[in-house]
Automatic annotation (TrEMBL):
Protein name: NAD-dependent epimerase/dehydratase domain-containing protein
Domain NAD-dependent epimerase/dehydratase: 37-120
InterPro entries, alphabetized: Epimerase_deHydtase, NAD(P)-bd_dom_sf
Gene3D superfamilies, per the entry: NAD(P)-binding Rossmann-like Domain
A Pfam cross-reference name: Epimerase
Length: 133
């Protein structure tokens, strides 16, 4: 299945004003069609914003993480997001709890799942992105 380009870019007024950047969203997954997207991580840093962009674009987002911060926790609100927007995003987001550093357990938890796109947003080291066979 051709998903087209999926991504986002940031444009700021100045390299030193990271906090004042505005995001130019580009999410074109087979236009007009909702996809099921796996985001490994997804509750911090860029993963939180990626999750928001995907859910706000109508996609069903499945997070794979340790489950330390459950979907719906107010700490996951993006600055400027209204309560209504937050609730709408949560309605399109679910979690599969697991540890990405345990490759065998991760494969076991995900083997029967079906995703149209996958974002590995949690790797800190190259070895974190390798799957155990």
């Amino acid at each position: 299945m051709d998903l087209g380009f999926v991504g986002s870019s940031f444009v700021g007024t100045s390299p030193r004003r990271v906090g004042r950047c505005r995001q130019q969203q580009v999410v074109m997954m087979a236009a007009g069609s909702s996809k099921r997207v796996l985001v490994i991580g997804g509750t911090r840093f860029s993963g939180l914003y990626l999750t928001k962009v995907l859910a706000d674009s109508g996609h069903d987002v499945v997070l794979f993480n340790r489950g330390n911060t459950p979907v719906g926790d107010k700490s996951l609100m993006v600055p400027g997001e209204t309560d209504e927007e937050f609730e709408a995003r949560n309605a399109r987001t679910s979690t599969i709890i697991g540890d990405r550093t345990d490759g065998e357990a991760m494969v076991a938890k995900l083997k029967d799942e079906d995703f149209d796109a996958i974002y590995d947003n949690n790797g800190r080291e190259l070895d974190d992105s390798k799957v155990a066979n």
